[in-house]
Structure formats: C-alpha cells, structure tokens
C-alpha cells in the first residue's frame, strides 16, 4: 500500500489553469486546439466543462491531467504544478476518461475498489462500509464479486466511477460519468456527487452532452468553442442572460406555404410542427425589434395567431446559442 498523501493546502484554488495553449502540426500548418484558456475552480464546486466536438474540451481536460503537454501556459492542482510535479499533483486528482481502461478486468468490483484505494494510501479494511456504500449507490450490489471483464459496458462504467470515488482524492475529473447508466442510477449518482461537494468539499469537473445532467448537478459551467472560453458562469446566471430569447407561436389552421420561407429567411426557427390541422413553431428572437418584426411577418401572411408565449430556456438552449454564431444577446456581447 502506498503512503497516504498529505492533505492539500487550503489557500490555493483546487484547479488553476492560466493562458493554456496547445497547438499541433497539421497538414496545412499548425492547428490550435486550445487558445489561451484560463479559469480557476475553488474547492467544493461542481463545474461542467462543455463544448461541441472540436471545441478543445478533450485537449483541455487531458492537459489539465498532465496527459498532454501544453505549448504554453500552466496548470496546477491545489497549488502543485501538474507538468513540473506530476506525481505530487496526482495525489490530489482522480479521473474517469471515456474510452480509457479505468479498471482491472480480472479483479472483482470489490477488489477493484480495494486496489485503487490502496494505491492512494488508504487501507481498504478501514473503508469497508464506504466501499459498500459506493457499490450500493452505483447499483452494483448484485455484481460486487463478479470480475469486471464479465460485466456490461454500463456496469464497467459504474465500476470505473466507483474506483475513482474509492481513491478519495479532493479533485475528480469525470468524462461523461452518466453515460450508459439507467435513470435510477443516474439520479443516485447525481445525489452522491452533490453530497461529496457539499459534505466532503470535493471539487468535481465533469463533461457531458446531457444538458439535463449538467443543469441538475453543476454549480457553474465553462463553455469552450474553437479552443477558447466563450462563457464561464453559474448555471442560473447563464439561464438569466438568455431569458426571453425564444417564443412558442401557435397558429389556427394551416398557414400559407410562403410563411415558413419568410420566417426562415429572417429568424432562427427552432421547430415547426402541425398538430390536428393547426401549425406551431418555436422561434428565437433577439430583442423587441425582432419580436415586432416577427409579428409583422405573421400579419402580412394573414396568419391567425392563437398564442405567442415566452419559453424559459434550458441549458441546452444556452449551449447552442453560445457555440453558434448568434452567441450572446446584444446587450451582453463583448465590444
């Protein structure tokens, strides 16, 4: 069993990333995957790191974990510089990366938890109750003595999460942690992650394409697009910024054929449907000017509007706006 690491210092951010840049050699020259990314994460925060494919999210995570060497910039975990003192930094951070082999196939679930706890200087005999609680939370009780290699993909994902939790590091990086989990286990894991942050001051950074999970679990969201940070704020604040941008319009009867073309030409129509002979659509409008312009287009087409209601945005709406050309509303955009 390895010696137990010393507790992390309390006066440094749990994760600090400063001016992080990573370039690669491409066929037509240098490709910038990450471009000057900076952020600090304090102890006890649950942060969602989001971005579309190619945004630099995976490169950022791997660089923070010391798996990729940055072209420039710095990363520290609880004050320990990751790329200068990797083994010391690893005392404070655990991760589950999608596509990586995160467990030992021949060991049972219980043996895997004990093994990874021991690697971190924890005597598994003193953590029996803790490990059983992890097994129960992840819905692995009936498989606890099965070798990991005999389990389904979803079960292996649960074991990998369990091993990460068993290491008891103050910082956790979880890549798509809910992938392959059933609804009940997802709910239980969300509760456990919130408990770890609240009661044990764990810092959790997770990536996910499931915006419902991010909205339910995270205190804060960092959004990457084209290798840069385009948003860094609390979930509530991001939702407030994008409030009143989308509307649901319900029409009576079938509108003229040219109406949809006219709307698509001027606005971002998110959805169009026809139910029981009546048409309806969702539309994103940037401010009052576009609102009245949309009303004028409907009037010009002699469309009968049954209702025109505001849609409260969810995190997925915000994410789409941030990572497409529309970006922030005019009053929030950078000069």
TrEMBL record:
<keyword id="KW-0813">Transport</keyword>
<protein>
    <submittedName>
        <fullName>ABC-2 type transport system ATP-binding protein</fullName>
    </submittedName>
</protein>
<dbReference type="InterPro" id="IPR003593">
    <property type="entry name" value="AAA+_ATPase"/>
</dbReference>
<dbReference type="Pfam" id="PF00005">
    <property type="entry name" value="ABC_tran"/>
</dbReference>
<dbReference type="GO" id="GO:0016887">
    <property type="term" value="F:ATP hydrolysis activity"/>
</dbReference>
<dbReference type="InterPro" id="IPR027417">
    <property type="entry name" value="P-loop_NTPase"/>
</dbReference>
<dbReference type="InterPro" id="IPR050763">
    <property type="entry name" value="ABC_transporter_ATP-binding"/>
</dbReference>
<feature type="domain" description="ABC transporter">
    <location>
        <begin position="15"/>
        <end position="251"/>
    </location>
</feature>
<comment type="similarity">
    <text>Belongs to the ABC transporter superfamily.</text>
</comment>
<dbReference type="InterPro" id="IPR003439">
    <property type="entry name" value="ABC_transporter-like_ATP-bd"/>
</dbReference>
<keyword id="KW-0547">Nucleotide-binding</keyword>
<keyword id="KW-0067">ATP-binding</keyword>
<dbReference type="GO" id="GO:0005524">
    <property type="term" value="F:ATP binding"/>
</dbReference>
């Amino acid at each position: 069993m390895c010696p137990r690491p010393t507790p992390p210092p309390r006066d440094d951010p749990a994760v600090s990333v400063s001016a992080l840049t990573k370039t690669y050699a491409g066929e037509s020259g240098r490709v910038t995957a990450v471009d000057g990314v900076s952020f600090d994460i304090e102890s006890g925060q649950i942060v969602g790191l989001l971005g579309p494919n190619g945004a630099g999210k995976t490169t950022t995570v791997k660089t923070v974990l010391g798996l990729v060497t940055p072209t420039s910039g710095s990363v520290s975990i609880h004050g320990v510089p990751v790329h200068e003192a990797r083994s010391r930094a690893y005392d404070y951070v655990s991760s589950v990366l999608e596509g990586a082999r995160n467990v030992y196939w021949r060991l049972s679930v219980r043996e895997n938890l004990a093994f990874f706890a021991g690697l971190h200087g924890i005597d598994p005999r003193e953590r029996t109750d803790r490990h059983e609680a992890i097994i129960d939370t992840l819905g692995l009780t009936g498989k606890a003595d099965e070798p990991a290699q005999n389990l389904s993909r979803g079960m292996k994902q649960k074991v990998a999460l369990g091993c990460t939790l068993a290491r008891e590091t103050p910082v956790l990086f979880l890549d798509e942690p809910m992938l392959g989990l059933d609804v009940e286990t997802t709910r239980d894991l969300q509760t456990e992650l919130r408990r770890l942050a609240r009661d044990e001051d764990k810092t959790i950074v997770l990536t996910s394409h499931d915006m419902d999970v991010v909205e339910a679990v995270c205190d804060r969201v960092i959004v990457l697009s084209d290798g840069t940070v385009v948003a860094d704020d609390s979930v509530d604040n991001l939702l407030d910024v994008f409030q009143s941008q989308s509307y649901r319009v319900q029409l009576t009867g079938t509108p003229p054929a040219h109406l949809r073309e006219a709307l698509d030409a001027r606005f971002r129509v998110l959805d169009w449907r026809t139910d029981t002979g009546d048409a309806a659509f969702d539309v994103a409008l940037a401010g009052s000017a576009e609102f009245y312009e949309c009303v004028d287009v409907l009037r010009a087409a002699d469309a009968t509007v049954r209702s025109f209601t505001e849609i409260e945005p969810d995190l997925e709406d915000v994410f789409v706006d941030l990572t497409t050309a529309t970006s922030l509303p005019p009053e929030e955009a950078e000069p």
